[in-house]
Inverse folding.
């Protein structure tokens, strides 16, 4: 059902996008046609006006030379030598026609429509259509001396036929333009949503097979869609790594819980077998309390890490002397260091003060010191030093132990992660994840520098 719905949604999106491309193309083409049409129309009309204006200026000059008689003589002479035919009329202030020349092409011209304007103060233009749809004329009116009105007209039938032909050509090409828009829109849509189709297909395959190792093929192009595909693949990689971490964490939790729970059950069974022996029962209860304390410690650390990483850990921040908090943590592990004959050297100054939660920061130092002692060989040395540069305080804890392989450098901070060398030691694999979570909760950073069989140095900057 989900697959069908996704396919329907994708198809609808594709069709919509194709239609939008086609509409944009067609509307742009129509807009371009109208702009071109009106530009050509204005140019043609302007050209007609220029021709008529030149005739008006010519006739006006003839009239000034010798009046209507000279104008009529010159006009007849010009009409005999040229094929161009112009309508010419001179009207008196009373509306009487003093001179009229109507070519054959103007037989359909209704001159009564030209009487409405007489003695214009400036040049006027009138467009007149004939009884036949294709017949049309443009008449210009100008003022002559003596309150006379000169009317000069020219047939614009050819110009209108040209514009009509232009419109017809456009109408003929509308359908091909529409089809081209749809085809182009479909092609562009097909290319544009190709990454989305690949993504949808990959999601379907993952849902169908449950294999989260599948990835969306990434093209060499650059764009939002390719970036989306890349981010989706990164999200799958992150999810895979988280799932793998969860599996490893569950394995480690199961392994670490199995030992205390087995001991707890064994102690209880021994006490039940010899329930009349009070000393045996008390010893069994003590063992149960110890093992339950181990389980409770692991759960509390997991909760502390979760609180620190989500930013909800409560911190009682005060001014703390680095030397004081480090020395108190060293005292806790003094016996452990003596048993392994490991010397702990503190190179600290009383003047270095930081604002931290005393208890939490002591927990950080204690965890790092515990690791340094745990993975150092007998007779080794652990150095703890601190320095200050501006507002930044750097605290380093160095050991001469087994070191950390390069492939595990980024993994040691994960919850419940235990490297190959650390599995032989007792522990929960939560120490370093808790260290990083607490340091980051204080706004600081922690990093490690290490070489196998040469030791490790953990550096806290806060």
């Amino acid at each position: 059902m989900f697959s069908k719905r996704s396919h329907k949604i994708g198809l609808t999106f594709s069709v919509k996008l194709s239609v939008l491309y086609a509409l944009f193309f067609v509307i742009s083409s129509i807009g371009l046609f109208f702009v071109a049409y009106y530009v050509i129309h204005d140019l043609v009309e302007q050209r007609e006006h220029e021709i008529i204006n030149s005739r008006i200026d010519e006739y006006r000059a003839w009239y000034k030379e010798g009046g209507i008689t000279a104008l009529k003589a010159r006009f007849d002479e010009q009409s005999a030598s040229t094929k161009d035919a112009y309508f010419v009329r001179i009207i008196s202030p009373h509306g009487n026609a003093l001179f009229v020349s109507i070519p054959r092409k103007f037989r359909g011209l209704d001159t009564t429509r030209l009487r409405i304007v007489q003695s214009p103060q400036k040049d006027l233009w009138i467009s007149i259509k004939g009884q036949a749809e294709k017949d049309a004329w443009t008449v210009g009116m100008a003022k002559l001396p003596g309150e006379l009105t000169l009317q000069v007209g020219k047939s614009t039938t050819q110009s209108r036929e040209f514009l009509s032909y232009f419109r017809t050509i456009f109408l003929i090409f509308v359908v091909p333009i529409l089809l081209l828009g749809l085809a182009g829109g479909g092609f562009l849509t097909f290319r544009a949503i190709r990454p989305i189709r690949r993504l949808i297909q990959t999601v379907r395959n993952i849902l169908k097979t449950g294999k989260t190792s599948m990835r969306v093929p990434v093209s060499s192009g650059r764009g939002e869609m390719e970036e989306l595909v890349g981010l989706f693949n990164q999200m799958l990689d992150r999810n895979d790594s988280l799932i793998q971490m969860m599996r490893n964490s569950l394995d480690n939790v199961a392994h670490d819980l199995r030992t205390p729970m087995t001991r707890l059950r064994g102690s209880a069974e021994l006490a039940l077998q010899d329930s009349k022996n009070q000393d045996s029962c008390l010893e069994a209860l003590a063992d149960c309390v110890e093992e339950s304390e181990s389980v409770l410690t692991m759960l509390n650390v997991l909760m502390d890490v979760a609180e620190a990483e989500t930013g909800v850990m409560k911190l009682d921040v005060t001014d703390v002397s680095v030397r004081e908090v480090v020395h108190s943590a060293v005292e806790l592990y003094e016996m452990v260091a003596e048993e392994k004959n490991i010397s702990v050297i503190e190179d600290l100054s009383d003047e270095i003060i930081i604002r931290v939660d005393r208890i939490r920061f002591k927990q950080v130092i204690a965890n790092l010191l515990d690791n340094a002692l745990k993975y150092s060989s007998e007779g080794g040395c652990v150095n703890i030093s601190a320095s200050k540069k501006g507002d930044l305080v750097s605290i380093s804890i160095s050991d001469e132990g087994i070191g950390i392989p390069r492939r595990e450098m980024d993994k040691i901070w994960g919850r419940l992660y235990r490297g190959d060398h650390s599995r032989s030691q007792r522990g929960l694999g939560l120490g370093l994840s808790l260290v990083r979570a607490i340091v980051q909760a204080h706004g600081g950073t922690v990093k490690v520098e290490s070489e196998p069989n040469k030791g490790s140095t953990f550096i806290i900057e806060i």
In short: The CA atoms of residues 297 and 428 lie 10 Å apart.
